[in-house]
Amino acid sequence: MSAHAPIHEIGERHMLPEGTTFNDVTETVARITETKAPRGWWILFFPSLGLLGLMVACIGYLVTMGVGVWGNNAPAYWAWDITNFVWWIGIGHAGTLISAILFLFRQNWRTSINRFAEAMTVFAVLCAAIFPALHTGRPWFDYYLFPIPNQMAMWPNFKSPLMWDVFAVNTYLTISVIFWYVGLIPDLATLRDRSKSLLRKRIYGALALGWRGSHRHWQHYERAYLIFAAISTPLVLSVHSVVSFDFATSVIPGWHTTIFPPYFVAGAVFSGFALVLTLMLIVRTVFGLHNLVTIKHLDLMNKFMLATGIMVGYAYAMEFFIAWYSGNPYESWVFFHNRLGFGYLDEQGNWGPLWWSYWAMVSCNVLAPQVFWSKRMRTSIPVMFVVTIFINIGMWFERFVIIVTSLYRDFIPGSWGSFEPTWIDICLYLGTFGLFMTLFLLFVRWIPMIAIAEVKYTLPQAHPTHDDHHEEDHAHAAEAAPAPAE
Amino acid sequence: MSAEKKTGGKKPTYRIPESDGFWAKTSWQASAVLALVGLGLCVFGFTQNPERFGYAYLFGFFTVLTFAFGGLFYVLALHFTGGHWGLTARRLAEIIGLSVVPTAILAIPLFAGVATGTFDLYDEWMGSHHGGHGEEHGGEHGEEHGDDHAEPAEGEGAHGEAEEHGSLFAPSVARAQEFPPQVDPQPPIRSHEVHTPQMEAAHHHIIEHKSGYLNQGRWFGFAALYFLIWIGLAVFYFRSSVKQDDAPKKERFELTNKMKKVSALGAIAFGLSLTFAAFDWLMALEGSWYSTIFGVVIFAGSAVAVLALIIVLGIGLHRKGHIGNALNVEHFHDLGKLMFGFMCFWAYVSFSQWMLIWYAGIPEEQTWYHKRWQDGWKAWALFMMIGHFGLPFYFLISRIVKRNLGMLRLGAIWLIFMHVCDIYVFVLPQYGGFGPSAIDFGALLFCGGVFFTFVFRMLMRVPLIPLGDPRLERALHHHQSH
User: What pTM was computed for the model?
Assistant: First the structure.
């Protein structure tokens, strides 16, 4: 760990306000689960519940009527369903990156946001899983996807990347849930110890798995945390890489390109950070977490988005350049006619009718984050809120562009089509927000949404040598008491 | 200096003393001797077989260049992330990055050879743009190789396999027939991949399409631009860092801020120039082939290579006590983890490229891998998978290995060797069938010798760690939590 005094002259600052005590951290976080929900929570909760109902209704309708109620058609066999799937899976990646990779890189600032982002990972993967499950057409046969011995001697086709997806996503979900839960244990014990009512004590007590905070417990905990971080790290790469294989193993121009795996991963982290930040800004205001999620955290997250946005921009540029460089007219057609809307006109002298979606994508994903070059913009809450919304939209469009604009005007003009979403496409997508937000709001209300123990770890007084060198900047933060449970 | 006072009884100077015969003299002198031996082999190779020498020299030159890439990356990444644990290895990276200056000089024979047509590396597309050279050259090609080569000459090899190629490229034949027959079929420049007149026409058509990018003027112009960017960055970071060593406190902060400021845009310029250099110098060896991930693959290999080299040099200096405790087992463990991580990343991107091309099975994309599977290259290709990933993965994953300096050094030396093999398989299969020659070895020896002479000389001239960095204290007292 690196609890060292920041060097102000080179722009370093303490992440948390000076003088933050261990008790402040516990109080700020645990209080949320112990007091009545603020009005803002209810204002968000009821619409979310409504949307969740809408999702259930849409799924019911879809299962009854069949996937024909979606706007998918020939040639746009995949459309909003897979777009939403990839988008939601991508959202989850920020959580894993923050909890695993930033942990391995000892980025201690992550402690204020990791819990929150990990929870989003779990909920986002649940939302994502709905779409391919329904997309099979007969979701009651989805168990065929698993290698279950059966009398029909049917076996999943392991040569298909769609099959790899089933395993990648399930592994991801399992590991994410366990990792999240392991991290929660000390904090659940804190809630247990603070409980006033017997019921609360029992429930949190059961969830805390007998945590007593002994040295032995901490030793096991830290070891488990490290192992899970190491296991999760390849998962950050593998899940979205496998999702990209769904497309890239094909021979469809616009899908088949070798940069897809790292490009999808960068895009996933990019979009994940954007949604984490969008929600964090709301929650931070509603629950008054300004002292734990400071503007410095937000600044760093914005830098991350700028970096991943540039990586995504690099991938767009490579795809475009190689589409032309390949000399393959079909590749060029997809990029110039279907997407860019420049050159390669059809017989009527038009370019692809969905060209605007490509431009929406580029504007939101590549142009919008460029404002973060300026420190003033990176530290302005309204600006970052708007930009993260843009990125969320842009990343949805990215998947839409990849999927639909590669399909709807392909090799043979005779088979061209177009794509229009139906109301059920729209309602189902909105409905998954209901699922996500309902779970998310329940989480922030009942589970410590900031990792109490881990934040304490980053405070200067947690550092063993804290008392050795009192320098001017943390001289008055000298509350070197050991971490109390309350 | 605060950095020095905490390192125990003996004050390390972080300099190589004149008294150390190996680091002060033998190292660079031996490198220089190797470079001279390499030069001799190069001259011999050039007179014997200039075509082969072109490929061999590109291999040697690019291998050395990737180390410079890695060095630049390490320096840029430390600055824009504000990381501190890796600081004490930064001076080594700065010196390796600065080797792009001698590498620019090493590039001169390559560019001269390409410009004059002595090297036929890019004749597939460059040839058609300077007069009748390509045709003439291509005509002679087959015979020449038939005589000169001990290994299966590509001309023969290709003819011998015509049937196999024919079936592999059957879809291309069908596609080729779409093009009007009046397209003047260009004679095959390297007879390796173009066989029937239809295929030649199709091939020519694609090469024509690319002439806006693949042409001699742009190629040379961009090459100059790349070197300008790299030399600019390397010199800026080296100079600023050395200046910081003895600068007063206030100026040190200013220099750190300045270096940080340049790093973000510098990284973008670096990333793009690396990508297009990889396209221009390696991917364009096969004018019709393309892969969007290619730049990332080269980048990943460079990162592994430089971390391995830093580990090897660092452990050497650490053992002699020249670097004090500034690089100790904690730092090497972290550098080892990073090297391991980038090795996995290399495997990930290399696998992605290969798997997607294999799975889709589009003939025009297969050519690159086809060449690396035929004519004796198969064993080499398999060796890359095992040697550059499989074996070192199981070796380096262990914490015990990464914290045992002897074993870590062994792993790092192995990865440097594998990196050289990796660049070899990028370049030489484009020349023809597998058959290592003294010419390849000579080119590597020459370029590598020049590189190491430079690196060892520079190590003598400057302190071994960035003494003036404000965060140095932290890096010196780096302890791991995991």
Answer: 0.88
